[in-house]
Design a protein that fits this description.
- The complex is a heterodimer of chains A (about 220) and B (about 140).
- Chain A is an alpha/beta fold.
- Chain A has 2 domains: about 120 residues, Rossmann fold (3-Layer(aba) Sandwich); about 70 residues, no CATH class.
- Helix content of chain A is about 30%, strand content about 25%.
- A 4-stranded parallel β-sheet of chain A has the order 3-2-4-5, sandwiched between helices. In chain A, strands 1-6-7 form a 3-stranded antiparallel β-sheet. A two-stranded antiparallel sheet of chain A has the order 8-9.
- In chain A, helix 6 links the parallel strand 4 and strand 5.
- Chain A is elongated and about 65 Å long.
- With about 140 residues, chain B is an alpha/beta fold.
- Chain B has a single domain, classed as 3-Layer(aba) Sandwich (Rossmann fold), CATH 3.40.50.
- In chain B, about 45% of the residues lie in helices and about 15% in strands.
- A 4-stranded parallel β-sheet of chain B has the order 2-1-3-4, sandwiched between helices.
- The mean pLDDT of chain B is about 95.
- Classes of the chains: A alpha/beta (about 220), B alpha/beta (about 140).
- At the A-B interface, helix 3 of A face helix 2 and helix 3 of B.
Chain lengths: ~220, ~140
């Protein structure tokens, strides 16, 4: 899922300066699961905003709403009645959701309440880790299901660097050396032959370096 | 502000603090009338939204009273509540309220005197802090003055 972290409260307050009526819009997708942009977080942030503005003697009216997803036109559509009533929408979706909302509601300012940080998963409740860098050229077949692009600090493709010590990365003793993990796993899977073949230099054109990407399922095009 | 009588909301667990409040009453123990008790099935029910709503509606102080650690009727509800209360302290601090306005206490149903003591101490703490800026009664007065 896409992981997001809430922006500092002061930054959000600054974005909303001068506004009297806004919508705080949550997203029922990834950011609900990672506990930063769902129904509950909408209620918490709205409550905080109302209190902070009330305290200044400059109250703000807030409509709280959470869409099923903000990255899908059919759900973005459902914010229309709210959009008519407010001066701006503060979205708790990831960057993609905010942009889909902004595209649909052309005359309405759309503000992000989250910093979209990475693609990952939950180790346990409330603890999220990065696992994919969306490079567009998956190498997990060769690396025992552990990604050297996302999990090696240098994104090395052919084994660890000299900074690997006792299975940890030199950037932080708490960060595992991805290549140590890969080697341990290949050994246990009896697939060390995959380590012996050289991986060519990465083609970053499939990553962001090739400009904005798109994916089209032709059988769905009408 | 000598005549300040704070509004304190106490979220009390049915199996301990709520029983302790009952016992405090049976023992004829005095504690301040500022406390508004809200009974919860377990403090594990508490979320930051509950606590923030209390402050938003003008409570000067809020506390959560759950079972002694290790004694939760639902095994670990009180241990779920503790970090949530601490997290909410940060949330109210962001808004500009003192984190001391929120606290978590642990007590058993047999601790009636402790319930009264906590109530007295907490109300005293809130009196020292003064009214919450969101408490409309006192804001009107200070605006007028």
């Amino acid at each position: 899922m896409v992981i997001g972290e809430r922006k500092p409260f002061d930054e959000i307050m600054k974005m909303l300066e001068g506004l009297k009526k806004i919508a705080v819009m949550g997203c029922g997708g990834c950011v609900t699961v990672c506990l930063t942009g769902g129904h509950d977080e909408v209620r918490v942030l709205s409550s905080q905003l109302r209190m902070a503005r009330d305290k200044e003697g400059n109250p703000i009216e807030i409509i709280e709403k959470t869409l099923e997803r903000q990255c899908d036109p059919e759900y973005v559509e459902q914010a229309e009645s709210v959009a008519k009533e407010v001066e701006a929408i503060l979205s708790l979706a990831c960057g993609a959701g905010v942009q889909f909302m902004a595209e649909r509601y052309q005359n309405l300012p759309l503000y992000p309440a989250l910093n979209t940080t990475f693609v990952g998963g939950s180790k346990k409740e409330g603890y999220y880790v990065e696992r994919c860098q969306t490079c567009g050229e998956c190498k997990l077949y060769f690396t025992g299901g552990i990604c050297p692009i996302a999990r090696c600090s240098k994104s090395l493709l052919n084994g660890p660097c000299g900074g690997s010590t006792k299975g940890k990365c030199e950037i932080d003793p708490e960060v595992d050396c991805a290549w140590q993990l890969i080697l341990d796993r290949l050994k246990s899977l009896n697939q060390m032959d995959r380590y012996s073949s050289m991986m060519p230099v990465n083609d970053w054109r499939t990553n962001r370096d090739g400009g904005p990407r798109k994916m089209i399922r032709e059988d769905f095009q009408r | 502000m000598s005549d300040f009588e704070p509004i304190v909301v106490a979220f009390c667990c049915h199996y301990c603090a709520y029983g302790a409040a009952d016992l405090a009453g049976s023992m004829r123990l005095e504690y301040p009338t500022n406390i508004r008790i809200i009974r919860l099935p377990c403090t594990g029910k508490i979320t930051p939204v509950f606590l923030l709503r209390a402050f938003e509606r003008g409570a000067d102080g809020v506390y959560v009273a759950g079972c002694l650690e290790g004694d939760c009727h639902f095994i670990h509800g009180n241990l779920v509540a503790k970090p949530r209360v601490n997290y909410t302290k940060k949330l109210i601090q962001e808004v500009g309220l003192e984190p001391e306005r929120l606290e978590m206490f642990n007590m058993s149903a047999a601790m009636g005197p402790r319930f009264a003591e906590v109530a007295r101490e907490f109300v005293e703490r809130i009196k020292t802090l003064g009214p919450s800026p969101l408490n409309k009664t006192y804001r009107v007065q200070s605006d007028a003055a």
